[in-house]
Amino acid sequence: MTDSYLHISFLVKNLEEGMAEYGRLFGIAFRPPQCSPLADLEQFGIEETGTELRAAYSVAGPPYYELIEATGCGMFDPAQGFGFHHVGLWMEDPDELRAQLALQNIPVEGIYWSPEGDIFTIHTAPAGENKIRFEYLNRKFEKTFAEILETGVVPQ
To answer: Known InterPro entries for this protein (predicted)?
Structure first.
C-alpha cells in the first residue's frame, strides 16, 4: 500500500512565506508555486470557492510535501486553521472508491474534474476522531501529475 502514498499537504496563510518557513525549519526545498482553477473543483454544499488555488510541491519525493495557500471557503478556508490538511494517495478506480467511501460513511467533500470530464481527484471530508482528510488522485492521470510536478503548469 505504500506505493499509493504520494504526498502530505499543509494549509498555509501565505504560500511564499510558508515555503520560506518550511525551508528554514525543516530544510525542505520547494518547486515554484503553481495555480489551479477552482472552477474545476466541485465542493459539495459550497457555492463560492474563489477563483484559483495556489500550491507548491517539494522538490524531493515521493512522498512530497505540498503547501496550499488558504483561499475562498470550503476545504481551503482559512477559518479552519493552518497546518496539516490532507494525505494524498493514488486510486485506481474512482467509482469503486466512491462506493467504498459511502459504505464506510466517509463523505466526499469535493471532486476535481479533468477538462474531459473525468474525475481527477476525490477529496474526503475530515473524518474520525482526528478529523483526517484524504485526497485520492486518479492513477489514470499519473503522467499529468508528473508533468505538473516537473513544470509547475496545471493543464487547463
So the answer is: Glyas_Bleomycin-R_OHBP_Dase (IPR029068)
Which residues, including other chains, have CB under 8 Å from residue 83's CB and lie 6 or more apart?
Answer: 10, 11
Number of domain units in the chain: 1
CB 139 within 8 A of CB 120: no
The residue segments making up the domain with residue 39 are 5-151
> Is the alpha carbon torsion for 43, 49, 51, 56 positive or negative?
negative
Residue 99: count other Cβ atoms within 10 Å of its Cβ.
11
The strands making up 34-37's β-sheet, listed across from edge to edge, are 34-37, 52-57, 64-69, 5-12, 83-91, 134-138, 119-124, 108-113, 41-43
> Residue 53 falls within a domain, yes or no?
yes
**Span 101-142, pLDDT tens digits:** 999 999 999 999 988 899 999 999 999 899 999 999 999 999
Residue 156 within a domain:
no
Q: What's this model's pTM, rounded to 2 decimal places?
A: 0.91
What residues have CB less than 8 Å from 63, skipping those under 6 apart? Answer: 5, 6, 7, 8
